[in-house]
Amino acid sequence: MNTLSRLFNFAHNHKNMLRQAALFSVADALLELVPYGILYFVIIECMNPPLSLAKMAWFSFLALCSICARAFARWKAGNLAHKAGYGTLMDIRRKIAQHIGQLPMLFFSHNSSGSLLKTLSEDVERIEAVLCHHIPDLCAAIAAPLLTLTLLFFLDWRLALAALLPLILAILCQLAMFRECSTRMQGFHDSLTAMNGAIVEYVQGIMDIKAFNQTVESYQRFSSSVRNFETVIKDWSKISGKYYALFGTMLGSGLLFVLPPGLMLLSKESLSMADFILFLLLVGGYAAPLDRLLRFSSKLREVEEGIRRIDAILAQAPLPDAPEGSLPQNYDITFENVSFSYEEGSPLFEKLNLHIPAGTLTAFVGPSGAGKTSAAMLISRYQDVQKGRICIGGVDIRHIPIAELLRNISFVFQDTFLFSDSVLENIRLARPDASDEDVIHAARQARAHDFITQLPQGYETQLGDGALALSGGERQRLAIARAVLRNAPIIILDEATAYADPENEALLQEGISRLLEGKTVIVIGHRLRALTEADSIAVFDQGTLRGFAPHDELLSSCSLYATMWNVQQNAADWSLTDMEESHA
Ligand SMILES: Nc1ncnc2c1ncn2[C@@H]1O[C@H](COP(=O)(O)OP(=O)(O)OP(=O)(O)O)[C@@H](O)[C@H]1O
């Protein structure tokens, strides 16, 4: 019931249409009875000759009208329900998309794109299917037996009671099934979720699975979850199958219950032949539409999980915005006593203090997991800090309108996502109002123009899923082109040359140095040799700032930095000596 009311909440903007669809469905059920009523009068007419042709013509006309009216009611019910269903689908998608657009970026690192995709596509479509098809169907399925029963009671209450019996037995049988299956419901959902998760993981990780020569059978998580789901389904069908058969049989067995008492009443002349025939015609399958109730309840169970997932997304608190907030006057970045921890973990930063002057290049270095990326991402309100504050130009970033904050920061990540669109549009993503010339100019600055013009359709070449694949270095140059086009005063580069070979690295560095002129830049990197020219280097270690100074100064003042530097130098020397020796 909760699911049903949540469903109607989603369809709130279209409730009038849904109500009308339900009314037309009831009208459809009512009109279904009209031909039987006409038949009743035809039988009476036939039993009392001579036949009046005028009356017969009139009955035929009425039957035709009822059929036409029924067709109209069905069409209207379907049409209105579809409009309401698709309207609701659009509303939910828009609402989720709008909501996730306001969530902190951290949310996306905890929720895979696969699960978000499933919610936005499958879960929402299931809701639409229930609203479009099952609700009008359900109204008709309930209205038809109720109206028929009313008519039967009106004709003869004794026989109507007999006709009610199979319905009561069917309902009891249904209740017994629910009781037996309800304990298995959680197991069903759990195994379905586990299987869906394993399928998504299998598809997403297919390259690695194949690289390690695994197959569907040998990839344990996949095969065991599929087997487990199969066992649950078999168990479920064994129980539900017998009840389902009984339920269906009961719904269709009205004749069996009505025939003996009907014949008895007829023999005692306590029932007219016309009433008896009408009873026999109506009672056979009057309750059969209730069969659809079963299908509806199973559909409702399917949408229940989806609604839970949608609600979980909508329950996430968006980042509080400050639309009327202040704008920074310059672009220095300050961490003031910042404490931050990820949801479940112990604090990553405690009272972190750092000042990055405007227009300088600062490198974040340190061992893996030291907090370099987290510190850089916090500047864009990846997630709000728990204590202290981060300021840009002296303004707490929480007091800067989010759109303005993000406009002022450009990221160049290790992995760049390319959309299913042309190269031109992929770069233009950074500034949608940029002209083609601006985009090409940015690509030239990023040293990407030459490889783009060699692509099959140059700037019009389609990228993204299933289209042309670019190398890691080429993708990174597109990322830099985006950043150049964006021309934001703060730039964060995360291992931006990670994929580049020596030749490409030189090109990338050239692109990057043009991008950086006059900007406040943070470079997250591991290769210290490439970072010696930075104005300052911040050395992180388990969330603590061990040193913050230029390279030469750090070599003498920060033991961690000196060790890292020596280790990397030795590794480079070792590999060079090693290569020279092996060539000798
Ligand atoms: N989304 C997240 N949720 C929970 N913990 C996280 C998340 N992202 C990072 N962490 C944890 O925070 C710590 C710092 O991670 P971070 O990625 O900032 O380090 P890093 O220095 O950039 O590492 P690397 O050089 O390996 O990229 C790690 O212990 C990591 O496990």
Characteristics:
584 residues; alpha/beta; ABC transporter transmembrane region fold; Rossmann fold; six-stranded mixed β-sheet; four-stranded antiparallel β-sheet; 20 helices; 9% strand; binds adenosine-5'-triphosphate; ABC-type transporter activity; transmembrane; ATP-binding cassette, subfamily B; transmembrane helix; ATP hydrolysis activity
What's the gist of this structure?
The protein is α/β, with parallel strands linked by helices. It is 63% helix and 9% strand.
Main sheet record: 6 strands, mixed
What does the overall shape look like?
elongated
Number of H- or I-type helical stretches: 20
Bound molecules: adenosine-5'-triphosphate
Mean pLDDT: 83
**Helix-strand category:** alpha/beta
Low-confidence stretches: none
Q: Largest beta sheet: what is the strand line-up?
A: 6-7-8-3-9-10
Q: Give the terminus-to-terminus CA distance.
A: 80 Å
CATH class assignment of the largest domain: Mainly Alpha
- Give me the count of strands: 10
Domain ABC transporter: 333-567
Main location: membrane
GO cellular component, one term: plasma membrane
GO molecular function: ABC-type transporter activity; ATP binding; ATP hydrolysis activity
